[in-house]
Structures
1.
Amino acid sequence: MVQIKFMQKIQNYINGELVEPISKTYIDNYNPSIGEVYSLIPDSDEQDVELATKAAKAAFPKWSKTPKDDRSRILQKLAQLIEDNLDRLAEAESRDNGKPLSLAKRVDIPRAASNFNFYATGILHYASESHAMEDTAINYTLREPIGVCGCISPWNLPLYLFTWKIAPALAAGNTVVAKPSEVTPFTAYLLSELCVEAGLPNGVLNIVHGLGHKVGTAITKHTDIPVISFTGGTVTGAEIIKIAGPMFKKMSLELGGKNPNIIFDDCDFDKALKTTMHSSFANQGQICLCGSRIFVKRGIYEKFKIAFVEKTKKLKVGNPFDTDTNLGAVVSQPHMEKVLSYVKLAQEEGGTVLTGGHQVHLDGELQNGYYIAPTIIEGLTFDCRTNQEEIFGPVVTIMPFDTEEEVLMMANSTKYGLASTVWTQDVTKAHNVASKLHSGIVWVNCWLLRDLRTPFGGVKNSGVGREGGFNAFEFFTEPKNVCIKL
Ligand code: NAD
């Protein structure tokens, strides 16, 4: 007998209601840990974006004039509901994305709650400038919400990055049409249920699910959406600029990376090694901030390499729901194939795979899941494709260097410039190297240590603009200078 599985249908969230897409068509949503479809995503199009935008536009006058204390209270309630639903949300995130449940519980979902708390309270402290001209005049700057903001996010940290955009936009008094990644839509859907429970007024936040070239493009080109906040790949960012640029939309683009880890011989060896394990393989290497090119001072290169390979071999690739799993599944079959194609390319370019380099086949119901062994490659030149292009998986390269100048040249050689990590006990060297690195973020003797007040973003092809702290409020508001002659 053929067993018919119940497929949960995700719904759009438009004008305060959970609704079907107008076309009534759906696309498959996979659980990457078992390689099977387990729910259905609305295949929305510009008609759904139109409805969502109308709702957001209608809600804007009231929401933008709602006292910030009231907006803050509603958003803090939403944060509380996320905390109350930690287990349910973390399980959904792990099932949808393939990431270890322990990671979703420790990082993704708590951070989604923090995003709302941080911006809900941040707006209470946000003040604008005043410039006095002695006895002549006084200038003051109004910071006004702009209108309907389009927020588009990727699959690697689904709820974490989705809320990182929505929270400041709403706190500042805007309304939002948001699109989560079609690869990992589930927690955004659960968030819409929580928005209803939190009493967020209808139309203030609208979530439209579906494909990038349909929903994403419809948001990007909508004339009633003057602001686009996007996180995703550099190629997609360029497509957005092509449409939104000539429309003079305000844009914040957080894009790809190819981040260097620079390990000097005067580092705290054990700390550098332990943290490099995380920065290489956390979330299966699918964090835009992961260090994928590891440069080690020649004097400690062999020692570091041997210890790094040994530790990596001990990592457990397994069921994301098991508490001792270090790496779960990568997000999709096409992504797994892309990552493995880079291992092949690295070998063609003369690299040697020190460990990993292959798909991992697990047993039982996990046999069709998308698992990759954590991989370390050496013997490549800094300028080969493997060392220049973003792989975005559990694959890193390791290379020796001799001088500070040489390592800075190699670190800065890619078209990206998101984050860098530097390991040294010498403060002067740390300052010097940090100042010369072409990247928006430099971590010294740590990685992914985040203070939400700090500017977040990249240079070169890693992005345009900064998120985080008051930078986000500056982006999501329009300054207006008023000059009064005395
Ligand atoms: P992606 O660019 O394929 O998709 C991101 C989002 O954009 C998705 O919601 C997608 O549906 C949508 N989209 C796709 N095509 C679109 C179009 N033409 N117009 C509008 N929207 C469109 O990226 P991804 O594969 O989901 O995520 C991985 C990438 O994101 C990596 O390059 C990674 O480095 C980057 N990333 C960057 C940061 C950062 O903060 N800089 C953070 C996380 C991920």
Note: The longest helix spans residues 101-125.
2.
Amino acid sequence: MNPSDIESLQDPANTAPVARCFALVPCAGSGSRAGTLKPKQYEHIGGQSMVMHTLAALQSVSRLQKIVVVVSPDDAHEWPDTAVQRMHCGGATRAESVFNGLSQLLTEGAKDPQGVQASDWILVHDAARCLITELEINRLIDACMDDEVGGLLALPLPDTLKAAVNGRVSQTLPRQDKWLAQTPQMFRAGALHAALLAKSAEQFEGITDEASAMEMAGFAPKLVVGSPHNFKVTYPPDFALAEDLLRSRT
Ligand code: C5P
């Protein structure tokens, strides 16, 4: 980090560094498993598109400086007026969309001290996890803000875990140390960018979330207990479940 980056992170009294948080929402998937005509993040749930529910939850977190959404280059969705920045740089995979978005943010940040700097926190959150809450996002931020690496929301595996071969159980695996990864996942922008860059030549093979990129770079992300409600809307029945849960909150 150069000296001007450090200056920009100081508070007005110039005493303590201010740790800033930004959110990046990958929203460039086609959602092929959802069985919908349009990308699943644009399907309506309870009167508005799934991604708008997701963004509303993120916007309720006052510690997030800015929220950016990564959409595909040919995204033709009609967005309502929102304070959220959209970047048309989505890629072929989720990891590529996150990498492209983060690269653009850091490039912008190099010209503008208000923009994302390498030492800022980035919270990456799936557009398709529309049931995330302000409480859970704040829990992650509180748990990771002073951590050296950062971490992710996740759930200890509740069920017995089976390995399968040709649709039949081949093995029962120990579940004591197994967690289901969710988002948001919170890492320093520079460290996450470097971890993804290291896998870019291999088309991000094996990178299914930000934590996996950080792990491959030698870090051990912190696990922060999430909620079973924060599931990723993936299959056709998930839409009705998401709608019921959102309705029960109003
Ligand atoms: O497809 P899946 O549900 O795993 O995608 C998780 C999130 O990543 C979704 O919000 C989706 O829009 C996003 N994504 C993306 N670019 C891709 C694939 C997925 O931004 N190429």
Note: The longest strand covers residues 179-188.
